[in-house]
Specification:
It is a single chain. The protein is an alpha+beta fold and 371 residues long. Helices cover 47% and strands 23% of the residues. The radius of gyration is 51 Å and the shape is elongated.
Length: 371
């Protein structure tokens, strides 16, 4: 009986060991299968919504073109504010005038007067030069012709006087030495005059030959490309730039949303805010796990004071950043990783008074899109 009981206990022990081994093997296999499934790549573009029909996110109401901070160089005193809250401005409109504007305008007037004087002097020189050239061209032709005529006559006279001198010097002429001396004097005088005329003719001919080169030099001196004249243009441009530095202009159309300084204060950077309210958007911060379910074109509702306003997703960011908007719910997560999604409102007129307001956005992904 004892032997039979011992055999029965051993059989139970072996059975328990076998069952334990089977359980261990089954557990190990289940773990391996689960691990393999986790490592298997998924073809889903994003995690499912888990039964939800919309993606909720916090956002801010902003002009689609952005909230533009218009500023002045820090340390500059504001002399005059040209606009007030609610004014509509166009590109290039003066928004504010800074200290030193009057002095800069005087410098501009002075530079423009200097340029005007330089232009006047250059025009006067051009007109005088044009008149001198016209007179010279008319006179030079006549002078050349007159000199040639005089030279021809003097040459003829010289030949006649030389012939007369030869005749008087002949023995048969029996001329006195006084008469011969007078004839020699006249002959020499004609030769001297002829030499002077020839020198004048050659000088005039040389001047006419070199005339194109001389006029080219004069033209370059009075040309617009001459650096001496360009200096005045550069002075005017510099004075205009100094005036521009003393005014603040609108870089685009929009509405003045806020004025941050008063006249007489020293600028610390931004002086007013501009925004084009013709198109309004909600810049939503969508949780990174939900961002893949949102695409451009998805409908959305923007809740303003509990009222849902229709909109449409127009942009989905591709960079994951830390959230900038915090929920007022004390149980909500403070530190989240989000993707910026822009939702354009269909009717911006209903939210133009609430720029930068924190709102809740409900985006409705298409149910037919694979998750």
């Amino acid at each position: 009986m004892v032997r039979a009981g011992w055999k029965t206990g051993r059989s139970h022990l072996i059975l328990q060991v076998l069952v334990g081994l089977c359980l261990c093997a089954g557990l190990t296999g289940w773990i391996l299968v689960a691990t393999a499934q986790e490592r298997k790549p998924t073809t889903r573009p994003s995690p499912p919504l888990g039964g939800r029909t919309e993606v909720r996110a916090l956002g801010r109401l902003l002009p689609e073109g952005g909230l533009i901070a218009v500023g002045a160089r820090p340390g500059t005193r504001i002399q005059e504010i040209k606009v007030k809250i609610g004014d509509s401005v166009a590109t290039g409109d003066v928004l504010a005038v800074l200290e030193g504007n009057a002095e800069a305008k005087i410098q501009l007037v002075l530079a423009e007067e200097q340029k005007r004087q330089a232009d006047y002097d250059r025009k006067r020189k051009r007109d005088a030069l044009s008149l001198d050239r016209e007179l010279f061209d008319e006179d030079s032709k006549q002078r050349v012709a007159d000199l040639q005529k005089v030279i021809d006559e003097q040459t003829k006279n010289l030949k006649q006087l030389a012939a007369t001198r030869t005749a008087l010097a002949a023995p048969a002429a029996n001329s006195s030495w006084i008469r011969l001396a007078d004839q020699d004097y006249v002959l020499n005088q004609v030769q001297v005059d002829l030499f002077k005329l020839d020198a004048q003719y050659k000088a005039l001919a040389k001047q006419v030959r070199n005339l194109p080169r001389q006029r080219a030099i004069e033209d370059r001196e009075l040309a617009d490309e001459n650096p001496a004249w360009k200096v005045f243009d550069q002075k005017v441009e510099l004075a205009k730039a100094l005036v521009e530095q003393t005014v603040v202009k609108a870089q685009g159309p929009g509405e003045v949303l806020d004025v941050l300084v008063h006249e007489g204060e020293v600028s610390g950077g931004p002086i007013l805010y501009l925004g084009d309210l013709s198109s309004m958007v909600a810049r939503a911060e969508v949780y990174q796990q939900d961002a893949g379910n949102v695409v451009v074109g998805d409908p959305a509702d923007i809740f303003v004071f509990g009222r849902g306003l229709p909109g449409e997703v127009v942009r989905v960011g591709k960079i994951v950043l830390a959230n900038q908007i915090t929920s007022l719910d004390p149980t909500a997560k403070v530190d989240r990783r989000v993707v910026a999604v822009t939702v354009r409102l269909k009717d911006p007129s209903e939210v133009t008074k609430y720029v930068n307001m924190q709102v809740e956005v409900a985006i409705k992904p298409s149910p037919s899109r694979p998750k």
